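Troubleshooting entry. The earlier prediction with 2-acetamido-2-deoxy-beta-D-glucopyranose gave an output that would not parse, so I re-checked the input for stray whitespace and re-submitted. Clean input:
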Amino acid sequence: MRFIGLIAATAVSVAAAPLNHHEVSTRDILPPFSLPDVAPLSTLRAVGVTTKRATFLYGPGIGGGPTSPTGALGLALIAADSALTDTELAAEAVLSTADRGVATLDIAKYNNLKTLDDYTKLYDDEWVQSTNPTGVMPGMLTNYTQDLLFSMERLSLNPYSVRRLIPGQDSLPFIVDSSTVQNVAGTSLSSLLSQGRLFYVDHRDQSSLPRTAQFGAACDAYFYISPSSGAFLPLAIRTNYGSNLIYTPADSANDWLLAKMMFNVNDFFHGQFHHLANTHFVAEVAFQAAVRTLSDNHPVYGVFKRLMYGAFGIRPLAVVVLFRQNGSIDNFFAHSGGAAQTYSATLYNNGVAGAVQSNYFETNLRRRGLIGSTVGPALKSFPFYEDALVIHNSIKKFITSFVNSYYSNDATVVGDAELQAWMGEAVTAGSIDFPSSSTMKTRGQLIDLLSHMAHLVSTSHHTVNTNNLITGGGVLPLNPSALYKDIPTAKGVTNVADYLIPVGPVLDMIQNQAFFSRPLIAGSNRTLINMFNDAIMLSRMNSATRAANTKFMSEMQAQSQVVKNRKFDAQGLSQGMPFLWQSLDPNVAPWSLTI
Ligand SMILES: *[C@@H]1O[C@H](CO)[C@@H](O)[C@H](O)[C@H]1NC(C)=O
Ligand SMILES: *[C@@H]1O[C@H](CO)[C@@H](O)[C@H](O)[C@H]1NC(C)=O
Ligand SMILES: *[C@@H]1O[C@H](CO)[C@@H](O)[C@H](O)[C@H]1NC(C)=O
Ligand SMILES: [Fe+2]
């Protein structure tokens, strides 16, 4: 494995100079961060930038997708990041291998996975010894047949696939038997649409992707805000495969549950490979452009580098663990590792995941009609927004203090040649919808851009990845990554368990999900609370930025308590969901990207 060698070769130099190892000319000085026009460093830093440009080059995307670093400095940064990333994965692998040993000894209790209830036994006192100490999200193993649990997954576990249909603008993507809709929703499909109560998820783009030995449909589905209860609920799922059946809650319990699982197979694939494009690719491309334009003494570079902790190590690891032939995607998904690469690259290139400004946190949710909708009722509960907003607001407050302390007015933003060069360079690097040098004119715009990068690498990422797979997003029986029996051509399924992963590969599958968990980070200096709490970086920042970090940390501590104290209410719900969602605990989730 190529990158293992690189790690060994650079480990020493990384340890010796954790922050500034690649700007040799200033490594021993570590001057305060400053904007480029501050003499006497201006000449020295120009030389530093020129050197970086000569040695940090754009290469082919590792594992597909937009550019990855190359050149001497580019490869050195990948190697240094790989050392961090691989070490964290190796520590996790030790934990999950121990749990795997226990799970294997307990194989008899899974009863050969004959029933759905047997699937819940896979997590009964399993994987909790080390790798998943907090266990599966409460409710996920007891309430998984409830429609509200399934629909609210769209607003928490993967909040990136659903959108509201807009009356007068969207037409109905498919028609559902009208008396069935009337029975389920109390009104017609077209009136739900005209009232702005109809929502849609479209995974039809998965139908043309190369397949594996496993099975998956290419579902699209309706969700709606109930006129009677105001709850957000599922209405219909169409498979777009084989007989192209349309399922609704009026079907038999077995048929409808299988339909929800078929949808989840597609949504799981979407969640994982959308996140690769939307968080990793976007942040990496922006950072590569930053490396080539901002001096290591630029305060914006200082903050961005902190956010990108270990980031370049992740794609090389994904090639080895996920994408390779007979890797974990080939083995546990309905579509191959190659298909996943194609899908991520497409979502990046068409802007759905790749666009920068139009995917700013609230802009993205507004565009999909999930917040501030001008039509229809507001969502009664939107857990992802609720939790992510608190973190986003605190990030933005920190970034605001930071930017305003270095830029005394908007003119200084326009006048910062390095910053403006970054804007131009980002397009060259392959960034989509990045602010251009002709549009980046205010401190507010810079604040929005940096806040977005911090949001992507933390909140946005960890909602769909990291600990979330083994605690919720990938938990059986409701959330399979593939079916193991072909999609039925008629309704009337008798045993849904027949469609799920058999006992043979199941522990491999769970351990693969465990590889993404980072239980050792909880409570450590690697959590989101510490996003800006880098002693060396802060020592080179101004006092306003240091004070802003102290404030950020105490706000995140408080939010951690809010999330930790979350319980079911008298209705058995939490944030309006029949499961307890605690993924965005700032004292558990890391601040930076992980594999
Ligand atoms: C969901 O599951 C939890 C834990 O098993 C239970 O306490 C709660 O009442 C359930 N909620 C509903 C709505 O059934
Ligand atoms: C593919 O991977 C699986 C699971 O890791 C393994 O059991 C199997 O032997 C591999 N097959 C080949 C052909 O390498
Ligand atoms: C976290 O703390 C440990 C132990 O003090 C230290 O070795 C490590 O470098 C720190 N990590 C980060 C990312 O600050
Ligand atoms: Fe990731």
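This one parsed fine. The domain at 2-128+274-374+383-476+498-564 is CATH 1.20.245.10 (Lipoxygenase-1; domain 5).
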